[in-house]
Every structure is written in structure tokens, then in C-alpha cells.
Specification:
Radius of gyration: 18 Å
Largest sheet: 10 strands, antiparallel
Order of helices and strands: HEEHHEEEEEEEEEEH
Helix content: 10-25%
Number of strands: 12
Oligomer: single chain
Number of helices: 4
Amino acid sequence: MEGKKCRLMTRLVLGFALACLVSGCSVPDSPLERADGDSLVRSEPYQLYQHVTEVKHVKPLAIEAAIPHLPEPIHDSVSRLGVPNLPFQVGKASAYLVTFTDETSKTPLNQVQLVYLKEKDEYGRYGEEFVAITMTEAKADPFAGLAVAESGVDLFGNKLLVEKAGKDTRLFHHILQTNGGYVSHYYDYDEAANRVSVTTTSANELDFYAHGYLYQINYVVNGNQADEAVQRSMVELAKQLLPKNEEEPA
């Protein structure tokens, strides 16, 4: 009983903290420290919202530290996501918590992005290889009624693989093969300015919808050379994020 009361209190505090981030009030002793920045990462092939307002960022946290503060629908799946499942040795990992408002419905919404950067390159820089997992709250399934239901090519002539995962979820995997493609984004943080910005690049992208969130996995590994093993590892990573009742039977 005490454990249930403790979990309930944690959810109430988190809900209050996120509500304050949207409204701009301060939260005494809250670990969710605000950061400057007004950009919102989006999926280019599967746009959810045309106009957003009141984008508010939290200072990025270590992923383990962020887990207690994640929205309830995605908490469990992120909690069981393991770094060993990533295709490179991770040098830096950060969790970005964002709130924003859909201007059409005036509804406050959540977004969480986990950014895994490979160890620094020979010039001491991060970001040459990365995996970014973005989870954006979406009240409706953006893939419902989508005409593209089979594998083929996308609008840029890049490979599009569509496969079923679990009972009802479809994975849409865009794999770069040409000089053109959808633009990918991931968050970056300037500690001196306490500001969250967006890094724009070309990357492979894997998208699906589960428990009220659009999942978007962008990745660059080995300079985006064609590597089916890496592609399959990203599919397996996506499957780990499915709700337990959506997982494929063993």
C-alpha cells in the first residue's frame, strides 16, 4: 500500500511540474530545471502538427535520471531499453523533455527525445554517428488510412520498408540510398547559454505509433553505408519500445 501511495505521489508531482513548465510557473525543489529554446523536433514524412506554440524545454538529463519524470504511457518501454542494443559504443547520452501546445486544439502535449552519440571522433567532436529516439504525443494514429502499406520507395527514391511488429503496429523504415531524403533533427544543448537547439542532418528514419505517441528513430551509423545488420538492429530496438501487450510472442 505504501508503495502505491509513493508512486501516486510521484505522478502527481510530475504532473504538476510539467503543467508548470507549460504555464511558466516555478516548481520549488523540482529537478526539472528549465532551459531556453523554442524549437520542436518533428518527423518530416509523418507530420503531426502544422502549428505549435508555447514550446518549453527542460535542461537535458542523463537518461536514467530522466526515467522517473517520463509521461506514464512511455515510462515502462523506455525503462527497459538497454544501451547494449545500440550499434556503437555510446560516448554521450541525454534525455530531452519538452512540452508544447497544438495551436489548433490548444492542447498541451509532451515530447521526449533520447539522444545517443557515439564516442568522440579524432577531432574531439560528438555527433558523427548517432541514434535519436523521439516520442511525440499524438491523440490520433497518423498512419491510420495511410495509402502506403507496402514496402517500396519513398518520395525521394529511398528504400521504404513496411513491416508488422507485434499484433497491430506497423513500422515504416526509410533507408537512405540517394543524395536526397527527408531532413532529420535531434536536440543539442549549449551549457554555457543554457539553451536547447536543433541539429539538422540526413539520416535513416524508422517510425511507428504506439500507446498515444509517434515514435521516430533517426540514426546514422558507419557513415550511412548500406548495412542490413544495423537496419535490423534498429528494428529490434523499435520492437523493444512496444507496449507489452503489443510484443510478439516468444
